[in-house]
Design brief:
mainly alpha, Dna Ligase, domain 1, two-stranded antiparallel ribbon, 6 strands, elongated, disordered N terminus
Amino acid sequence: MSLIEEEEPNLDRRRTDWALDEWDEVGEVPAVEPLRQQTRIVKWVVWAALVLVIVLVVVAGYVGWWYLDQTRPDTEPGGSVAFTVREVDTIDSLTARLADEGFIADESVFKWYVERKGGLELTPGFYQLPTGAHMGDVLARLRTPPGQTYFRVTFPEGFTIEQMAERLDESSPRLDAEAFLEAARSPLVPARFREPGEASLEGLLFPDTYQVSNADNEAQVVERMISIMERVSDQEDLEERAAALGHTPYEILIIASMIEKEAKLDEDRAKISRVIYNRLFVGMNLEIDAAVRYGAPADVTDFPTMRRTPGEYNVYLNPGLPPTPIANPGRASIRAALNPAANPPPGDPICQALEDPTQNCLYLFYVLINEEGGHAFAATAEQHQENVNRAAELGLLDG
């Protein structure tokens, strides 16, 4: 028998001989009931947490609504209004004025917003701020330096300096017509083609579309218009061509201004130019209506009376050119003044009315002849009168 087999009875004997004590018998374990007080506490904690979440949501919503309300003023969205950032302005003084003028709703919110968005470096100058807009739009405008903010203004060909002043005033709420006129009538503003002793810059301001920055003032606008006129005049070779025609550059600009006011169609410009030169050559008064109107007294409104009223611009009564340009001419009229059309050849129909058709046939007269603005030209007074009668029948003449 093996050793293992011999030991088995001993193992069984040990299990049989195990002594039990009172702890070895386990009775039924009673169920443990949770305390009612603990249950109540848990419920209150849950309810309190739920109420807190609701309160936080309501508060957050109210704060968000209030913030959004403060970022936009009460005024309705509209256009832009001029606003000046002054040399002495600080963020506090600037914010106070923005609130006073209705651009923002709340000073403290705006300052907090500016700080949150990286601050604002103040640049003195003129700004166009939106009305009724989000404060972010206001901040964006204030961050754009005045020299980078532009508006466009168009001065049509043939505008006088008074009309230009009015157009600039209408186009910009901060630029003033009177200040423009003061600069345009100042002998201190340099202009290469102005005659000595003449103060007005009439005829020396180039009509065009300009971009004017919020850093510009009225005198700077005038100086830029002079500069463009001089550049265009150089491109058209004004000084040399004027000398070849026996005139000063200023006199050519006087002629160009009359062409600008008289011509309605481009094809008539050079012919009107030729009429002016021919009349000067033969010693006839120019009899140009636009010049008379320019210099007429303000209280004279009907043209027949204007023609009879003495004045330095009445070229019905006075020989030669008027003393100054009567408007600001564009490139086409300057070019026409420098390049008048050739006179009609002897075989032209208007030359047949001459006693001697072989003699010089000159364009000496013109009159408005159709509603499109075209003119009829004539070499004799009789031809011209026929054209005038036809224009009168068509209702094209006002006196």
